[in-house]
Amino acid sequence: MRRFHPNLYRVIQEWEHAKGEPLREISPNVILIRSADLAVKFLRNQNELTIEEQSGFYRSANFNPYPKGVREELSGGIRSLLRKYDPADLWLESFSAMRAETRGWGIEVVGSYFSEIMVRAGVREEKSSVGALRALLRGYIRVVVIEDAVNRRYPLRTAELNMNYYATRVGRILRLLDDGWTESPRDIIDLVCQATGGLCVSEEDLGELYLRLILSLVGFTGITLEWLLICHHEALGKLVDGYPSGGKGDVMRLIAETLREHPTAWRLVRTSISTTTIANKVFPAGTDFVVPTSPKAFEYGSGRLPMNWGLAFGVGESACPGRSGALDALAEIAFEVVRRGYQQESARLSRPYAASLLAPPRMAVRLG
Ligand code: HEM
């Protein structure tokens, strides 16, 4: 029988009613852990890494997670790339007068907006491998980010194979495009090549790291954009005339409210690196524990789940380096979408879909 990713939202709701059950296995080797204390104790005592030291993003089969210095360099690089970022006007063409579907249109639009951060145009253009990389990125965003991470169209095994397929090919091209050290990274290619330069990183691991960054860049931001428009397009419409000279604070509040109710990055995984026993159950090394972004935030009473599962951008050492860049991009893109005329065929909100990202319900929208 084929095994599909579980719909975590449903599992969590059931679990919420099963009072006193500290753990729930949602698929082999993936465990939801209810008590923050338990999670902290387990990960601190049994492993060499604390919750704060692990990362849900900077990891691969061989580097779980990448060493601290590498992660700091990557996060610093992301902040600086996003701070300086000025999208080419080309992105505006990406959603002219089209009928689209949630879940996916936001990711495509954000992908065009951030295209220059993924592969900087110009200096690399003479290399034929740039065309191949762009084609692979389009395929990756469609297949892995939209169809797998958001819509869960594939069984787990196929999802893994899809990731491996893109990671291997992308990693090979990144090696060809690696120009060595540049004073400040021009794009995510420079960033991952330079930050991992001192490590023995395989092509596949390099590709996976790059693609995980693309997933965070376009996946989380794109799905937040879809939620923002679904929840607040009317309020955005009232603010649009004042932007950018005014209204920034109001937009940020709308985005914060969207993320508070629908935290797109709700499912953060930490992997155990030794066998341990919790609540009389033995878990082998390599078990994935779904833990909250902040142990404190996990200590809920009877609130709704997973809406109150933590802070939208994480906390502590592994908090999101893309926060400020994502917020600015969201405001800019959301206003452009509203300015061009955003319509929703149905405003009825049904149950969201909790896969890797907390995706909005399906509905048709019209852009531009
Ligand atoms: C609305 C959009 C976004 C949301 C909601 C979001 C959310 C988060 C959260 C909750 C974490 C903590 C993960 C953990 O503790 O395991 C995180 C980490 C991270 N985010 Fe974002 N993110 C967003 C946009 C971005 C963007 C635009 C980038 C740019 C590449 C990015 C890159 C990362 C990276 C690299 C990490 C790992 C940091 C580390 O482990 O040290 N994110 N993000």
Automatic annotation (TrEMBL):
Superkingdom to which the source organism belongs: Bacteria
Recorded hits in Gene3D superfamilies, A to Z, give: Cytochrome P450
Which InterPro entries does the UniProt entry name for this protein? Cyt_P450_sf
Q: What is this protein called?
A: Cytochrome P450
Q: What organism, scientifically named, is this protein from?
A: Zhihengliuella salsuginis
